[in-house]
Write a structure and sequence with these properties.
By secondary structure, the chain is of the alpha/beta class. The protein has helices spanning 31-46, 68-71, 78-84, 86-95, 111-117, 145-153, 155-164, 170-176, 188-200, 204-217, 222-237, 240-251, and strands at residues 7-12, 15-20, 52-57, 100-104, 107-109, 121-125, 129-131, 167-169, 181-183. It has a 6-stranded mixed β-sheet with strand order 1-2-3-4-6-9, sandwiched between helices. A 3-stranded mixed β-sheet has the order 5-7-8. It comes from Deinococcus aerius.
Length: 261
């Protein structure tokens, strides 16, 4: 019997969808899932036909965090495990040249919560929830949660969510800024695809540079951000997308930012 792939891959209209595929465990992560997801993200980044990447879950969960059974009794430290699996994955997502959408279709717990927060755009189903569950087993939030969450909700609310392991539902998640959109469960995958295709029609080079600028600004001074903007604006202005945008504006037509071949 052939084993089911841990990551399902689908490409449609410039959108590469990567689905975590351990639905019987609510997509709890093992090494195979994490390492395969990282490699598939790199492959999507290198594929010129891909303009947007979506990460979602199969079944009724997004990602329930680490599969504890997979690491139980293993001769590897916590630090070694994170540096082998989760940390390269999160760095790959944040460094990807293309927009990454995390489409949260159910529970996102522990490291799954970190993964849910790592996207450039976060879309949630009505039934989605996020829980920083680490303190329930006396561990520290990892996989980027201590970096992402306080930047979204502030130090104090982040500490409370982590210390008490409070579950955040979709409506509160939207209010807190943990996601950009909430869609009905029954149309979630179609709504995500439509949103991703809308993003895929935008100027890819300009979005790539925008992502670079925002990532740099998160850890820079205002003066450094201004210098980075000036540097990247020149690159954007020299690209054919800019000429097309200006020509379309003058002609009062919609710009065509997708070129075949």
């Amino acid at each position: 019997m052939t084993a089911e792939p841990v990551i399902l891959v689908e490409t449609r209209a410039g959108v590469r969808t990567l689905s975590l595929n351990r639905p019987d465990k609510l997509n709890a992560a093992n090494d195979a899932l994490l390492l395969t997801l990282t490699e598939e993200l790199k492959a999507a980044d290198a594929d010129p036909a891909v303009r947007v990447v979506v990460i979602t879950g199969s079944g009724r969960g997004f990602c329930a965090g680490q599969d504890l059974g997979d690491v139980s009794g293993r001769d590897m430290t916590f630090t070694e495990h994170l540096n082998h699996t989760y940390n390269p994955l999160i760095r790959t997502i944040r460094g990807l040249s293309k927009p990454v959408i995390t489409a949260v279709n159910g529970v996102a717990a522990g490291a799954g919560a970190s993964l849910a927060l790592s996207g450039d755009i976060r879309l949630w189903a009505r039934s989605a929830s996020l829980i920083e569950v680490f303190s329930n087993i006396a561990l520290v939030p990892d996989s980027g949660s201590t970096w992402f969450l306080p930047r979204l909700v502030g130090y104090h609310r982040a500490f409370e969510l982590m210390a008490l392991a409070e579950r955040v539902g979709a409506e509160e998640g939207l209010r807190l800024g943990l996601c950009e959109r909430v869609y009905p469960d029954e149309s979630f995958r179609q709504d995500v695809q439509a949103y991703a295709e809308r993003l895929a029609a935008r100027p890819a080079n300009a979005l790539r540079l925008t992502k670079q600028a925002l990532n740099a600004a998160l850890t820079s001074t205002l003066d450094q951000a201004l210098e980075k903007e000036a540097e990247l604006q020149q690159l954007a202005g020299d690209h054919w997308e800019h000429a097309e945008g200006v020509a379309a504006f003058k002609a009062r037509r919609a710009p065509e930012f997708v070129r075949e071949g």
